[in-house]
Each structure stands twice: as C-alpha cells, then as structure tokens.
Amino acid sequence: MFSEGPARNGDVALPPQPDATDRKLLRELQRDSQRSVQVLGECVGLSPSACHRRIKVLEESGYIIGYRAELDAILLGFGMQFFIEVELNSQSETALDAFEAAVQDIPEVLECHLMAGQADYILRVVCRDHEDFEHLHRRLSARLPGVARIHSNMSIRRVKARTGLPI
Q1: CA-CA distance, 133 to 84, in Å (whole number)?
Q2: Pairwise CA distance, residues 52 & 50, whole Å
Q3: Which residues are in the HTH asnC-type domain (predicted)?
Q4: Whose CB among 107, 132, 148, 151 lies 3.0–4.6 Å from 128's, allowing a Cys bridge?
Q5: What pLDDT sits at residue 164?
Q6: Which domains does the chain have, with CATH numbers?
Q7: Residue 11 to residue 134: CA distance in whole angstroms
Q8: CB 82 within 8 A of CB 125
C-alpha cells in the first residue's frame, strides 16, 4: 500500500508516500471520481473492497482532500475571466492577514495566490460582463485593505485547463 516510513520535512512528519497502485488509483480518481469502487478497482487491478480500503487510507492520510463537480462558467453566465495583480501598501503579517481575510468574502474571486515577485497577490475572478467587472473592480479597490495598486488582465480564452496533478 504505502511505502515504508514517514518522510520528514523539518519537524513535520509527512504521511508515507503512495505506492504505484495508490498513484494509479489517484490518477483514476482525478480523471473521474464518480465511478464505482468496482470500476475503479478494475482500472487499477484491485478488488472492490481493496480499492475502497485504499481510497479511505488516501483520504485519511490527506492525499485526497475532497471531491467536486466542475461547472461550465459560460453556461452559468460568467463569460469573462480576469487575472488581477494586487500590490499592497505593506507586506507586514498584519496587512497580509487583513487582505487574505477580506478576499474570502468576495464570491467572484475563485483563487487568490500570495506571490513572490512583482505582485503581492494574483486573483482569478469571474464576471458576467464588462459592467459586472467594473463593479467588482471598484469593490476590490474599496473593500480590500491596504491595496496600493491593481493591474487587471482579461483572459481571452482558456488554452489548457488541468485540475489534476501529474502523478
């Protein structure tokens, strides 16, 4: 199942690394997690009960952190996507914490990444149209604490999207 011995990262004990069968199972779950354990087991050469046990261990070890449905943004009316670079007035821990707490309350912000480089944060946001983006931009400027500069880039189209990890 898992390779022997937990790995160490500084003082943090990491869970044991998945073996080859576990990695196959993780790839199959990333591809389609709605298949039955019988079908998944057949894909990776396990009985349904062994497949179920391995999935439970992978979940309990933290390798599987959730299951979700991927929705079509355009069909749901979110035809515009932007990547917004944000620079803050200060990079103190207090300023970063305040910004990160405030961004949690903006539903159009799908992702927020703390960056190393030119911008302090990059946000991925969706909007219905230009007017919706203008309102969002004003809210970001007004509601997010410590913002010094916002630079927005509109996505013309998605060239590649991958939700799974290359395991």
Answers
A1: 11
A2: 5
A3: 18-79
A4: 132
A5: 85
A6: 8-60 (1.10.10.10), 80-155 (3.30.70.920)
A7: 46
A8: yes
Q: How confident is the model at residue 142 (pLDDT cuts 50, 70, 90)?
A: confident
Q: How many residues does the chain have?
A: 167
Residue with tokens 């007004």: 142
Categorize the per-residue pLDDT at 133 as very low, low, confident or very high, splitting at 50, 70 and 90. Answer: very high
Q: How confident is the model over 30-68, as pLDDT tens digits?
A: 999 999 999 999 999 999 999 999 999 999 999 999 998
Instruction: Enter the tokens of residue 84.
Output: 């917004």
Task: For the chain, give the mean pLDDT.
Answer: 91
Q: What is the CA radius of gyration of the chain?
A: 21
Q: Residue 143 has which token pair?
A: 């509601």
Spatial strand order of the sheet with 109-114 comes to 109-114, 121-127, 80-88, 147-155
